[in-house]
Design brief:
140 residues, alpha/beta, 4-stranded mixed β-sheet, elongated
C-alpha cells in the first residue's frame, strides 16, 4: 500500500489573495472558514478526491526557481486558450516552450512568482497521435 498526496502546499505572503487566484485557475472552492489576513487557506477540489491546495503565510519572499511545480492539463480548451485564460487571471509568462508543430508547454508564474506549466490538453495529444498515424499509413 502506498501513500497518496493529501495536499499541495504554497508558501506565500497573502494566503487569501493567492488562494483566490488558484481557485479561479483550478475551479476549486475556498474553505468556508478562510478570510483575508488568515495565515493559512485551503482550496477544496470539486470532486472531493483530488489533493487539496494549501497556502501558508511565510515572511520571506520567493527568491529562486521552484524545485517542484504544478503542471496543468487543460480540460475543455486548448493549451493556448488556457494560457490566455490564466494570463487574464494575473499569471505572467516566464518561458514559452511551445513549438510551431504544436508540441511543448508554457511556463507561467502566479501573482507571487510560483512557477507552473500549462501542457497540451488530452484532446490535442490524441489529435497529434492520429495525425502521426495517418502520416505513417500514407508512407506505408
Amino acid at each position: 500500500m502506498y501513500p497518496r498526496i493529501h495536499n499541495i502546499s504554497f508558501d506565500c505572503h497573502d494566503t487569501y489573495a493567492l488562494s483566490g487566484f488558484w481557485s479561479a485557475v483550478l475551479g476549486y472552492a475556498r474553505h468556508a472558514d478562510d478570510a483575508p489576513g488568515d495565515p493559512e487557506a485551503v482550496l477544496l477540489p470539486p470532486d472531493g478526491t483530488a489533493p487539496t491546495v494549501f497556502f501558508q503565510q511565510v515572511p520571506e519572499a520567493k527568491t529562486v526557481k521552484n524545485r517542484v511545480h504544478v503542471c496543468l492539463e487543460p480540460a475543455g480548451r486548448t493549451r493556448d486558450q488556457e494560457v490566455e485564460r490564466v494570463l487574464g487571471l494575473g499569471a505572467v509568462l516566464v518561458d514559452d516552450r511551445r513549438r510551431a508543430d504544436g508540441t511543448g508547454w508554457a511556463v507561467l508564474a502566479d501573482p507571487e512568482g510560483n512557477e507552473f506549466c500549462v501542457l497540451r490538453s488530452a484532446a490535442e495529444r490524441a489529435a497529434a497521435v492520429e495525425r502521426a498515424a495517418a502520416g505513417a499509413d500514407a508512407e506505408g
